[in-house]
Amino acid sequence: MLVRDIYRLPVGAPFEGYFVIEHVEIRKHRTGEPFLRLVLSDKTGTFQALWWKPPKDADLTVFKKGDVVFVRGNVEYFNGNLQPKLSEIRVAEEGEYNPKKFISESRFSIEKQFTKLLEIIETVENVYLKKLLEGFFYDEEFVEKFLRAPGGKTIHHACIGGLLEHTLGVTEICETVAKRYRSLDRDLLITAAILHDIGKVYEYSVETSIDRTKEGILLGHLYMSCEMVAFKIAEINGFPEDLKTKLIHCILAHHGQYEHGSPKKPKTLEAVALAYADALDSKVKGFEEFIERELGGGTGWTKRHFAYEVPIYFDGKIDYGEEE
Ligand SMILES: [Fe+2]
Ligand SMILES: [Fe+2]
User: Would the pLDDT of 319 be above 90?
Assistant: First the structure.
């Protein structure tokens, strides 16, 4: 059973299923007896659960973040939040569950999106920028990682293929911007759009859930993307120093503001266009994902968004993409 389906059950209804542990802590009843508080998830959502009365001989320390567990319980709410008390929980064996249940995939065909991205790379005329892009996107090892990478952990594009979907989204927005504002260096903007988040390939790990890697936490994808680009540029004979500076500036400034993690504010036409294109794609998609998760295909108001700090209204139909 998926998390989404549990939310649709009436209070008291039994449920069972496989979920990933997002968070686990051992707490104590007033009597001193231990119990478990868990946050469980799959690709359709998250809920809190309590293992209220574990057997006296149960080892509560075997449950770790990232483990897949089998649980049984009955639907119960506390302060308006789903919070069932579990009657059974055990760590699941590999092969017992379908790993695809835990992380969703981009709803658009990964192959088709990648082909589109390669077509856009073909339109770049500057030989140095084109060489740079080909250095990444004709490298099988990199491409394999890029196509699997998520665009984020929670706020937007948190799925396999999410980085590709977001990169293509930002790049297509930049193509439109470059057509409208002719003073922009189109090749530079398109290259920056395609490369702006490549550091996410190493910022996140994707197993049963999406997590930040140690490098991701310590360095962040803005620095990591710049480092990857600088390394690749060093392999290209005669790559103009000035072009490198402008490209790196676009990547460093793509979050737009210091408080969003950019060490530089946009100071060129291409950098400001990229920062807004990035914000546009991630915010609209972030809204869409939140609506989908909260309303589960229905309409009306969501609860307040944890990052955007507003409830969102929706009375349309979610685009689930094309069937492959
Ligand atoms: Fe970014
Ligand atoms: Fe981005």
Answer: no
309 within a domain of the structure (yes/no): no
- pLDDT at 29 exceeding the cut of 80: yes
What is the number of domains present in the chain? 2
- pTM for this entry: 0.81
Asked whether residue 64 is assigned to any structural domain, the reply reads: yes
Residue 71 CA, ligand 1 centroid: distance in Å: 36
184 Cα to the center of ligand 2, angstroms: 20
The residue length of the chain stands at 324
How far does the centroid of ligand 2 lie from the alpha carbon of residue 107, in Å? 18
Region 63-76: mean pLDDT is 94
Taking 80 as the threshold, does the pLDDT of residue 22 lie above it?
A: yes
Give the DSSP letter of residue 310: S
pLDDT above 90 for 289: no
Ion ligand 1, residue ranges at CB < 5 A: 197
What Cα–Cα distance (Å) separates residue 19 from each residue in 13, 46, 156, 170, 281?
18, 9, 21, 33, 30
What mean pLDDT comes out for the span 62-91? 92
Quick one: pLDDT at residue 323?
47
Whose atoms come closest to the Cα of 157: which ligand? Answer: 2
Distance 168 CA to ligand 1 centre (A): 13
Distance 217 CA to ligand 1 centre (A): 14
Element (H, E) at 74: strand 68-74
Say if residue 35 is in the same domain as residue 127. no
The DSSP bridge partners found for residue 38 are 24, 49
Terminus-to-terminus CA distance in the chain, angstroms? Answer: 24
For residue 43, give its domain range.
3-101
